[in-house]
Amino acid sequence: xxxxxxxITDITTIDWIARARRVGEALRPEVAAGDRSGDxxxxxxxxLRESGLSAALVPADFGGGGVTHREMGAILRELGRHDPSxxxxxxxxxxxxxxxxxxxxxxxxxxxxxxxxxxxxxxxxTGASDWVGSNGHxxxxxxxxxxxARKAPASGCEAGTVLVTSVRWDDAPDGPxxxxxxxxxxxDGVRIEKTWDxxxxxxxxxxxxxxxxxxxxDAAVSLARPATVWPPLLNVVLGAAMPxxxxxxxxxxxxxxxxxxxxxxxxxxxxTVQLAGEMATAHTTANDLVDAMFNGSQNLxxxxxxxxxxxxxxxxxxxxxxxxxTVRLAIETVGxxxxxxxxxxxxxxxxxxxxxxxxxxxxxxxxxTGRVLLGQSPIG
Length: 380
Description:
With 380 residues, this protein is an alpha+beta fold. The chain has helices at residues 16-27, 31-37, 42-50, 69-82, 84-105, 111-118, 127-130, 232-264, 270-297, 306-334, 344-352, 362-373, and strands at 123-125, 137-141, 144-154, 162-169, 177-184, 190-193, 207-217, 221-226.
């Protein structure tokens, strides 16, 4: 872990996209090997720290890069063009930072976490598996809790320094609670089981983090809430996270479109031209939906409402459809070569499908959105 913050004092002169491009280009030669082996690139996260990208979203007043929500999305998009697995895993870190920026923008102290990120911490999220009810078991002890849980997937966990998670406390005095907390990976009882063996994003290191009788002090618990009631916190997380996550996948599609265009260059047969036009249309649709997500976020000043979360999730589902369609059409435009593992399009097609499984998958999203539209709680 880097203990000295990168020199980003003159942030007004930094071209963050060019910096992300240099990192991406440095990572690109090993991407295919990582896809074959399923091993995360720890060197990638070293580069993200050293380049200042891991702290780019932290406000400048706290020693970070001070980029906007949209600019952070553009950084992830650029990384996705080069290294899909790293981009998506890194999006898990950045969305946790984004949620803290939202808190800061709304007058809530986020300085302690900002300091950790500026010092080089990589945050790992377990939110996708936790959702509202969470899992695991917490037991109240003097000064805190003893917790047991298995958290999966936890993207980037092998490169992580702080696990941002939640654990269910069924024996709480007022009924089942969920404890939100931050746990150092160096804490006693924390270990990683290498369980991630998937169709795509194979090098994202999204393994299982096991918490085996881990002591969590009271000071590490940021929120205790009812386990069966929709928490406004998740409106914030969804609004902060989904634009960034989908920006990384948009970068994956960008790379596919660029490669397909280069491979089909000079072909004038009607089917290829037709498919290329359909690919461009799907790509434009995905781009416009992700852009609308960032417009709606108001640079992390959005209102904490169920309606905002619902709209964000609706756009996420539509963008995911357009992204998967884009990369499929890229393969069709190229033809049989695109189906071969010797062609990068095959990897990108597998990788882009990961966007379907981030909160919320289609069926859960439409149920969520329908309930909100009809004036109900998002869950029930």
